[in-house]
Design brief:
- The chain is of the alpha/beta class.
- It has one domain: Rossmann fold, CATH 3.40.50.
- The chain has 11 helices and 8 strands.
- The strands form 2 sheets. A 6-stranded parallel beta sheet has the order 2-1-3-4-8-7, sandwiched between helices.
- Helix 1 packs across helix 2 and helix 1 packs across helix 11.
- The chain is globular.
Length: about 325
């Protein structure tokens, strides 16, 4: 695989590093109770969101999950509004009403996330149908975990997207666990890609978290989708470094071991891509990220809480 130009590598590294450091700061602040929302951290899984979103256009749409900080930031949505949302402030991306699990920014193409497993998959399919009818070559991406593939809407959405040749990329972030239950105890086979391919769509896997390989794959798949080939499916193997929900580790809980973590840490894409950039340039990028994170936290701290009168606004009924 040809290495991308340095400008691309720097952009990819910045996105990876921003997500990693932002979430580490979320984990640091969380015990203070300033953050008013449960948090599902993407630490260790950043390469999926970055590899996919860096292959997209600004006007493409992504649909995330409750573990959605990475997709939100990788698509270019503002960190300060994400932090304010976690703090429950009126300046948050959902006016402080949604919290960590309901990030949204349509100006950057971030379709609202949901706390309910699998529910954003059919929403992405519906949006992809609208994009097809719009006829401007835009695509939608649906991110979901391996646990969501066991929901009925997963099979229904694959079938609907294939039947109507929708410009929809299905991306399974397979970290091996549905909360604490490993795939070996849930799946009769590991042939997820084969299942998706049975609907007549391209289906491929990236098994090692390689952000550049994933990016190259998505560029190729999306190019076909823009030309009208219909949906595609990617299984991206990954591993979360922290507990299912919360800021801590959980390797003493008995359902997984630290050895698995160490294997993934050895191929950490933040470190790998950073190593491709000149030290002085990397240090400058890192310093800019720290400044951005500090400003975002200050923004969240100083922002007002929502007015009680806002409680019933933006509701369906």
């Amino acid at each position: 695989m040809t290495r991308p130009p340095m400008a691309d590598l720097e952009r990819i590294y910045r996105s990876l590093r921003l997500i990693r450091r932002a979430e580490e700061e979320v984990a640091r602040v969380y015990p203070s109770d300033k953050i008013k929302s449960p948090v599902h951290l993407s630490i260790g899984q950043e390469s999926i969101a970055v590899g996919v979103c860096d292959a997209l256009r600004h006007d493409d749409i992504v649909s995330g999950t409750y573990r959605g900080h990475a997709a939100y930031l990788a698509k270019g949505a503002p960190l300060d509004r994400m932090m304010a949302e976690l703090y429950g402030k009126d300046t948050g991306c959902a006016r402080g009403k949604g919290g960590s699990m309901h990030l949204v920014d349509m100006a950057q193409g971030v379709l609202g996330a949901s706390a309910v497993v699998g529910t954003t998959i059919p929403l992405a399919a519906g949006f992809a149908l609208a994009l097809k009818r719009e006829g401007k070559g835009r695509v939608a991406v649906s991110f979901f975990g391996d646990g969501a593939t066991e929901e009925g809407v997963f099979a229904e959405s694959l079938n609907f997207a294939a039947l109507h040749r929708l410009p929809l990329l299905f991306v399974c972030e397979n970290n091996g666990y549905a909360i604490h239950e490993p795939t070996a105890k849930r799946w009769a086979t590991n042939r997820l890609v084969e299942r998706a391919a049975s609907y007549g769509m391209p289906a491929e896997a990236v098994n090692d978290g390689d952000v550049l390989a994933l990016r190259a794959l998505v560029i190729r798949l999306v190019e076909g989708m823009r030309a009208g080939t219909g949906p595609a499916f990617v299984e991206a193997k990954t591993y979360r470094w922290r507990e299912h929900v919360g800021p801590n580790e959980d390797f003493e809980a008995g359902y997984r071991g630290r050895r698995d973590l160490e294997a993934w840490q050895a191929t950490d894409q933040v470190v790998r891509i950073g190593g491709m950039i000149a030290p002085a340039r990397r240090a400058a990028i890192d310093a800019a990220i720290e400044t951005e994170i500090a400003a975002a936290l200050q923004f969240a701290e100083n922002s007002p809480v929502p007015d009680p009168a806002q409680l019933t606004t933006d509701t369906y009924a």
